[in-house]
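Sample A.
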Amino acid sequence: MAAASRAFVDMQELHLAAGRRIAELVGVDAAHVCTGAAAGIAIMAAACMAGTDRDRIAQLPNTTGMKRKFIVQRSHHNPYDQALRVAGGEFVDIGADADELARALTPDVAAVFYTIAWFCTRESLALPQVTEIAHRAAVPVIVDAAAEVPPPENLTRFIKEGADLVTFSGGKAIRGPQSSGLILGRKDLIEACRLNAAPNMSIGRPMKVGKE
């Protein structure tokens, strides 16, 4: 961190290079560094709504003309939901019911939002079942797994179970800087995350990762 503080870098180039290196180390398709898992939720949501379209990215949180609904199991609601709403997303609640999930996958759904956390104690559909149903409708699944490391195997586990994007906190048990986090997953969606994050003029612009 001290060495980085003395160097001037192009932040776009640094994000791309850091993402490639982290993806290589972890063993996933792609990675993006963010300022924590809450920022990761907002950026993942923005990526699913606006994609890589520069005009749409600049338009958020106004979602006119975009898919803006995120299906969530009621048992997964928690205070971090606000991060998704910041990006302009709207929740569609379902129970722990596969048929209800399938019916909810309408053309205006941007993604299914799934939380893996110690406080999600009520009944819920398992992630592999959710991803199978969502992918049949060509809908991505985004996962908040903020505190799910250790074990380190979880960095790839949820992607192997079908998740398209997963965010982790860097400042918890990973023991990185407090204002750090990771988004891991599908290469095209990670590129959308990058474009919806700082230093781009986007919903993620205030969530700026320092070069250090």
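Sample B, a different protein:
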Amino acid sequence: EYRELTVQRAIHELERYLIGKDPRDIALHYHNIYRDSYWRSGPVLMSALSAIDMCLWDINAKALDVPLYRMLGGKVRDRVKIYVNGWFAGARKPEEFARQAKVAVQRGVKALKWDPFGKAYMNISPAELDHALACIDAVRTAVGDSVDLLIEGHGRFNKVTAVKIAKELEQFKPVWFEEPIPPDSIGDLADVKRQSPVPIAAGERLYNTRAFRELLNCKAVDFVQPDVSHAGGVTGCREIAALADCYYIPFAPHNPSGPIANAVTLQLAASIPNFFILEIMDT
């Protein structure tokens, strides 16, 4: 997101290492690319590495003429539960959100995610909060209790405001409150989770297994949300899912990034035991 050309350049820089190597040695190449980066991590390197890792897995699956999930241990499920993002495009008022939610549900959607908080940042005024709650209430009333609601924060609030919002959200029984504060401080997110009456989800802006280890050790989330495009591709997301499973935390991958990421994440969802739900863009 927002650094596409930089990541593209980083991928081409890795040609110096990759050209002439055997693409079947995925673990070796993943390790060497990560090890030999002077900075070891960062979103640009990890996004480039994620792309290469996805390509290497794809090459191997095609060479063996099997679906990728077969190489990942086979299927643990035949169907993948999804929630839809982007269903609300253009809505501003509660009645507009309600109308578009009904349209989505009529198409068979059973879980809806959106950010109802407008342009509020760090703090939220009483009027802004009342409007957000009215939008959520309108959607809940429109679709009933059988449809799951997931509330997005986009990492925009301070701790006090995040906790205030979380307490107001409880009445609507959301699946989770996502990224209530910026991703920079896992310890502060843990503080919010301890005070929140609703589950907390986060992880889309973390990009290696070690960051997720800290997230889990701090007991900062109820759901982990790595993105296959940034958190190490297939190899990285499998590691993160296995780590989360040690804490009995569900794996709910972030997935708004287009058809390639969607195809890869579906293969992961098919084969990871602690998978919970997958994000799908309405478009």
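Observation for Sample B: The radius of gyration is 20 Å.
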